[in-house]
Structures are given as C-alpha cells and as structure tokens.
Specification:
homodimer; mainly alpha; three-stranded antiparallel β-sheet; about 50% helix; about 10% strand; globular; DNA-binding
DNA sequence: TTGATACGGTATCGACTCGAAACCATTATT
DNA sequence: AATAATGGTTTCGAGTCGATACCGTATCAA
C-alpha cells in the first residue's frame, strides 16, 4: 500500500492554498479577491478563442452567473475591457486594460512561486510537471472537463510552413506567439482518431 | 530562460482548483463549502497538538475569526465536537464527531484524485512529491509560515525504542500511528537550508 | 417567414467567506 | 496586583457562489 498519491494531493492542495493567499496579498492594494487576480492572470494568457466569460468560468471552475459578477467588478475597477464580438453579437470578449496589464506587471503575483522553486533543478521540475500534467489529463477525462491546452499537442493544430500555423477547427491562421496561449478548444491529439495533419515536429 | 516553474505553478493551481471543485461536490449533500470539507479532512489527519482552531486556521490560510465562523457551522451541522483543554482553559480542542467521520468515509472526497494518479508510476509520484515538498518548505521559510509536517523528519522527534517514540518539545510519548499525523509544531531537522530529499518510504 | 428552441450573458437572491477590528476569558509577566 | 499577551468569539461590510429567472441573439424546422 503506497501513500504517496495521498501525500502528493496534500502538497498540491497546500501549495494551491498558499498561492491563493499570495494572490490575495497581491490583490489587496486594489481590493481584489484571489479569484479576480486569477482571472486577470488567465486573461493575460488566453488566446483569441478563449477570452470570453464562458471560457473563463470553465477554467476557473465557476458558474457563468458568478463569473459575470466578477467581471462586472473588474470592469468597474477599470482592469479589463469588454467588447462585443461582431460575428455573434451574444458573445462578449474580454481584454486586459492598460491598468490591468500594469497591475500584473507590478504586482507580480507569481513571483513568490518563482522564488520558492529556485533551489530545485530544472530537471526535477520538468519531471514534476510531466507527472502533474498527466494527472490533470486523467482527472479531466474522468470528469468531462474542458482540457485547456496550448496548440502544440492539440489535434486541430496545423503547421502551414516553417513559421505559419493554423487552427483546423476554427480555420484561422495563427501567429507563433498565439500558438503558445491557453485555448479552451484544445483537444488531445492521438487517441486513434484519423488526423489530417501528419507533419509533426 | 526556462518557463518550467511557471508551468508547474499553473498545474498546481489548476489541480488545486479541481480538487476544490471536487470538495465542493463532496460537500454539496451536506450543504458544505469546500473549505469545510477541507477542514474535516485536516481534522482527520491532525495530531493531538494540532486539533485547535488556531492550528487549523494556520493550515487553511484563514484568519482566526473566519475559522471561528466555519467551526460554528460545522458544529451546528454536528460534524465536529468541541471541548475544552483542561490545562489551558482558553484553548478549544476539536474532534470529528461520528457523523463527521462517516461523512469522510462515505463522501470520499479524495477518491477522484487517487483515480487521477492511477497511471503514474510510484517512482515518478515520489519524485514529484519530493520536488513539491521542497518548494513548500522554501515558500514557507520565505513567508514565515508554519511548516506542518509529520514527526518523521522533525527536529523534536525522538525514538525511545523499536516501537516507542517521544516528542522532545512537548515531552509526550507518542504511539506509532500518531507519529504519522500532521503536526503544526513541526520543525525541519537539519539547521541548514539544504534539504535532502531521500526521505522516502 | 415564422415560430420554437438553444445559447451567451446578465440580474437577483440567500447562505456563506473572509479580513479587520473590537471584544472576552484565561494565562503569563512583572 | 496590575499589565500584557494569548486563544477564541463576535460583528461588520464587501464580495463569492450556486440557483434560478430572465434578456437578446442565433439556429433550426417547418
């Protein structure tokens, strides 16, 4: 009988709590709750398909009603901007405002974490990352959750040329940096389905 | 520039969120918030020095006022019992009630996690544990947080004989199982900051 | 064209969180 | 004995959060 998974859970939870507390501290100046800070961090990393209230709610594990409330607050504080999608006028799109951007750059909510990992070798970190990533994938496929990944590794990702990419699902061309952002349309490659892109790297 | 620490943070956060959502689900029947479930889980794992509101607040990262509220609720629901310490009459001690115990056994809030780690080899889990543990230690010493560990590895831990142990700080003899519970008096053994991570069992 | 229905988002409600600060006993210090 | 420190509780106000109802837009079926 191995208790390691149990211990791992405890650690993830504990570190999660601490980061939450860190987010709380980072947001204290601006009167923000941890979840607001988290929302801003997400927004800074989300790609063009994923900057909607819906995707955000999914990512943060909230209902759309709750999300709407938080966004209202962030808007009032002037940290985000909302604008309408011109293709589907039901859809609201979000972006960081200048001061939202500034807040993330100055507050550095993730700095404490960077510090905390300073003594650990890159190799051990990579190993931990791979184990946790696998855990996350399993967890999500167990629970029907949205995957939320970046293009690399996504079934819809297509490479047109050395520096040109495309999302096969949405049909848009993507810039290099954009392929590294978080996308809620992400789907794991492989899994025995026929893929039309066989040019992998 | 390595982005792995950043990714690790993202994963820990995301998994933390998911466990939080899991706790939410587990507590839904009993009308409990995630933090309540977490409190019960903690209580089930805390040793005799750590079953107080104060230790709990420290562990969960809440203020004592907030903790007091949550404990009130758990008491109303009959999931915990409070009793006075007879040495220091300011101190309140906590224990799971029968139904609190039952709740944990039936709800199995940690089961989903156990499942999610099923495909990962014990060895990789242990490595991840060791990396995260080190991160936690560094984080806590950066931020003056209480360490919260089990006897094994604690500076105050003394082994009297093959199966008899003692806490040098409090002077009590400890049973074998008790040495494996969470203690908020925990202090890292070696005085140096470098920790050896070969303490796996 | 005209419904019916689905969907993205907002508004409202009530129970609860959470930090801050005031407060109350009890213990420690002097 | 007076004072300070300590463990917990209470109170307050802004905010979270799920549930539900609701609004406008898009989609689908006749």
């Amino acid at each position: 009988m191995d208790k390691s998974p149990q211990v791992l859970l405890e650690l993830v939870e504990r570190l999660g709590n601490l980061m939450r507390a860190e987010f709380r501290r980072a947001g204290a100046d601006e009167q923000l709750q941890p979840v607001h800070v988290h929302a801003l961090v997400y927004l800074a990393r989300a790609n063009r398909y994923s900057n909607t209230p819906q995707a955000m709610a999914e990512y943060l594990g909230l209902t759309k009603g709750t999300m709407s409330q938080s966004l209202l607050l962030l808007d009032r504080r002037g940290l985000i901007e909302r604008y309408q999608d011109d293709l589907d006028r039901r859809v609201v799109r979000l972006r960081l405002s200048a001061s939202g951007d500034q807040f993330l750059n100055e507050g550095q909510p993730q700095l404490a974490w960077q510090q905390a990992t300073r003594n650990i070798s890159p190799n051990r970190i990579r190993n931990a990352v791979s184990a946790l990533r696998e855990t996350l994938t399993t967890f999500q496929s167990d629970n029907e959750g949205q995957p939320f990944g970046a293009c690399h590794g996504c079934r819809h990702f297509e490479r047109l040329s050395a520096r040109a990419y495309r999302c096969g699902l949405m049909g848009d061309r993507l810039s290099g940096p954009e392929t590294r952002r978080i996308c809620w349309l992400y789907e794991e490659k492989g899994s025995g389905t026929e893929t039309d892109d066989d040019d992998e790297e």
